[in-house]
């Protein structure tokens, strides 16, 4: 029998209150003494939290294409965006596939929309991820944030994660992929890993019953040599088509 999320929240209310307090306390500690809260510790905490949230909502996560994740060099993950659960799915998927106990897990760094900072809990969680917030209404500022984001990813050797649609797009068809991420990738010689997320659209739907399968597929990477002569808009469309094909295949 599948327990509804609302009953799980009631049953486990105290553990979840402790997790929320942990977000605030860890974020506060990171602001005051960042050297005492290393990236690996923060990533482990957020990844475990992501898995717990998906479990609360009865999500079964399947991950494919782990071998397509480069272990070195500048790497940018570009997923489609259907739900607020997509970032959780990416965090949980990376945790799941990086299971070598002798190696540190590679940390993702997200580019998020600025509106998310209006929510206190999200603002603190994003700070633990070292996420960069972008104002989509300010083109010039967005370019500067993208440059800072790229510099951080390269310096800290993380996975840069950008949702090129820029917002959630409902329905089977993907939205337009903005070229900004691909300009950065081209300028800074990133390996681009297209990421197809299937099934996430209804994760938080209140009326949903039973368990839900969400599939995260890391597709074949595009190395710089494979797209360097292309215009960023053409690269964006190329990646969009690759993800769309994978989504259609998994429907």
TrEMBL record:
One of its GO terms (molecular function) is 1-acylglycerol-3-phosphate O-acyltransferase activity. It comes from Mycoplasmopsis gallinacea. GO terms for biological process: phosphatidic acid biosynthetic process. Pathway: Lipid metabolism. SUPFAM superfamilies: Glycerol-3-phosphate (1)-acyltransferase (SSF69593). Pfam families: Acyltransferase (PF01553). This is 1-acyl-sn-glycerol-3-phosphate acyltransferase. Keywords: Acyltransferase, Lipid biosynthesis, Lipid metabolism, Transferase. PANTHER family: 1-ACYL-SN-GLYCEROL-3-PHOSPHATE ACYLTRANSFERASE, 1-ACYL-SN-GLYCEROL-3-PHOSPHATE ACYLTRANSFERASE-RELATED.
């Amino acid at each position: 029998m599948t327990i509804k999320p609302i009953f799980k929240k009631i049953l486990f209310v105290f553990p979840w209150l402790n997790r929320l307090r942990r977000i605030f306390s860890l974020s506060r500690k990171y602001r005051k003494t960042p050297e005492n809260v290393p990236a690996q510790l923060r990533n482990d905490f957020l990844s475990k939290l992501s898995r717990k949230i998906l479990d609360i909502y009865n999500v079964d996560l399947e991950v494919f294409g782990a071998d397509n994740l480069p272990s070195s060099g500048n790497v940018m993950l570009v997923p489609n965006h259907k739900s607020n659960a997509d970032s959780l799915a990416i965090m949980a998927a990376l945790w799941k596939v990086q299971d070598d106990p002798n190696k540190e897990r590679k940390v993702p760094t997200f580019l998020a929309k600025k509106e998310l900072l209006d929510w206190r809990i999200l603002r603190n969680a994003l700070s633990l991820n070292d996420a960069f917030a972008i104002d989509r209404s300010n083109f010039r500022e967005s370019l500067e944030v993208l440059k800072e984001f790229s510099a951080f990813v390269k310096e800290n050797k993380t996975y840069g994660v950008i949702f090129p649609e820029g917002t959630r797009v409902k329905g089977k068809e993907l939205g337009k992929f903005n070229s900004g991420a691909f300009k950065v990738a081209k300028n800074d010689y990133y390996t681009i890993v297209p990421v197809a997320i299937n099934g996430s659209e209804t994760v938080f739907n209140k009326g949903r019953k039973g368990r839900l399968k969400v599939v995260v597929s890391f597709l074949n990477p595009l190395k710089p040599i494979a797209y360097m002569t292309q215009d960023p808009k053409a690269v964006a469309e190329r990646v969009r088509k690759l993800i769309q094909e994978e989504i259609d295949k998994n429907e």
